[in-house]
Amino acid sequence: MQVDWKRFSEVIEASNNIILTSHIRPDCDALGSCLGMAGLLESLGKKVRIVCGQEVPESLKFIDPDDRIKCIGKDIVAEEFADADLHIILDTSAWIQLGDMADVIRNSSYKKIIFDHHEGEDDIDAELFKNTTAEAVGRMIVDAAEYLKVEMTPAIAQPVLAALATDTGWFRFGSVNPGTFRAAAKLLEAGAQPAKLYGQLYERETVGRVRLRGTVLARIETELDGRLAHTYIKPDDYEKTGAHPTDTEDLINLALEIEGTVFAVIMVGQVSGGYKMSFRSRCDVAANEVAKAFGGGGHRAAAGAFIESDSFEEVQNQVLTQVREMLAAGIA
User: Fold this and answer.
1) Beta-sheet pairing, 86-90 with 17-21
2) Cβ proximity of 156 and 175 under 8 Å
3) Deepest in the core among 68, 79, 84, 110, taking most CB within 10 A?
């Protein structure tokens, strides 16, 4: 699926008061794309507000130095943007990922569009602008800037680089192509600073996150002759290690560093209840197909899902049984 940029331009041109929303448990693609899109739209004279279902994680607050991203029910209520004429949902097409913004979107009467790169979508009453081959929504923001003829500024380029770089594993993932680097070059030409971004992301670790990483590493187990690696985090691990729940971001990639591993799973207990699963694949079994078995989704190489159960043993058995069966069928 590709974006109809002519139609997208028409929708933007017809709107003046726009709300942007992305998914809960936000990553850099969600946050950076919202900030980048806000900059593009404001360059066109639009009024823009960013309202999401959760606060920006402490570890990612650097991406929003002006505190533009508001949390529904905490920083703003729905009545304050009831006068909007367009709502853009970025980097998700699933109700469950919208958190407390889901009811706001269901009960609103203004036009809604989805701007996303994930395969599949729920029955959200929204016009779709999706590119399922895009490496990141950040890449789509770069394309939007070109089509809308908006000159990117450093304030736009920096968060969009965060979106593009992190969703491609700093340009390591299989989704990367020559266009990825051309897009990155445009962001650097607009003033993005990759060294600063890398330092903000990876060179200010807390003791808690380091300890949590150690816990995750100690729990890694391999199966199927080393092709499957899995690990987990329980809700009480955050208190034990002094880590924050957002410190789990990207820890699954540690399992893929093991030679011979082609599929990795991490089961992450949530303080609010339930378990979030992340899947990574570099084999014929698509991560998003595994995630669909649990009502989740994502991409072929990276996907996620959520199970509303507080029993780790139940979740572990359910998830690993499904993964084992699909790997056995998919890897002859």
Assistant:
1) parallel
2) no
3) 84
Find the helix packing angle between 137-148 and 178-189, rounded to 10°: 60
Q: How far apart are CA 161 and CA 185, in angstroms?
A: 10
207-330: CATH class: alpha beta
CB 123 within 8 A of CB 67: no
d(CA 173, CA 106): 35
CATH node for 5-201: 3.90.1640.10
Report field, pTM of the whole predicted structure over 0.70: yes
H-helix or E-strand spanning residue 198? helix 194-202
- Alpha carbons 233 and 313: distance in angstroms, whole number: 12
Residues near 167 by Cβ (< 8 Å), separated by ≥ 6?
27, 28, 29, 135, 136, 137, 138
- What digits encode the pLDDT tens for the residues 52-105? 999 998 889 999 999 999 999 999 999 999 999 999 999 999 998 999 999 999
